[in-house]
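Page 47, continued from p. 46.
Same chain as before, 183 aa.
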Amino acid sequence: MSPLFRLLNRDLGPWVDRLMVLVSREDFIYVFFGLLSLILVLRKGWRGVVASFLALGLVALADLGCARLLKPYFARPRPYAAFSGVRVFKGGRFRITEKPLAAEHYGFPSCHATNTAAAAACLSMVDPFLAPAAVVFTLLVGISRVYLGHHFPADVLFGWFFGGILGLSGGWLWRRWAVKRGF
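Result:
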């Protein structure tokens, strides 16, 4: 295991534990990006609605590519399924693995990182005002995946790259469309 994995996958106290579990929850991620989309709609009107649906479509495409194409292709196990001594949050609690645990899915790339990067990149290109919150949240989600023992740092880095490329492509298409319409 890499030194970066060991640095991020360790007990930093109950407050950090709760934060990392929270930001990894899919429902929390949906609420966060839903709020960003609401801000976008309030700032951009109907164009914000269109951009929000574009971001949602990009996240669906990112998730499909991550879960159905890349994970089966690379077939890289999650840290807790590959090694013992991993601090993992599983079954509602943290524990240190004594032996590798069974995992339902592969780990590379992180779909959490992929999906949040796609949404953040697209929404940030549509309205740069949203970029600081979107980027910080996306970074926090990715770090949480390593902290919780579900991904190696490379899983997250590749997820950010893949999702970021999709999101930036969607943002670029949005800008070309917006320029043609004069706004």
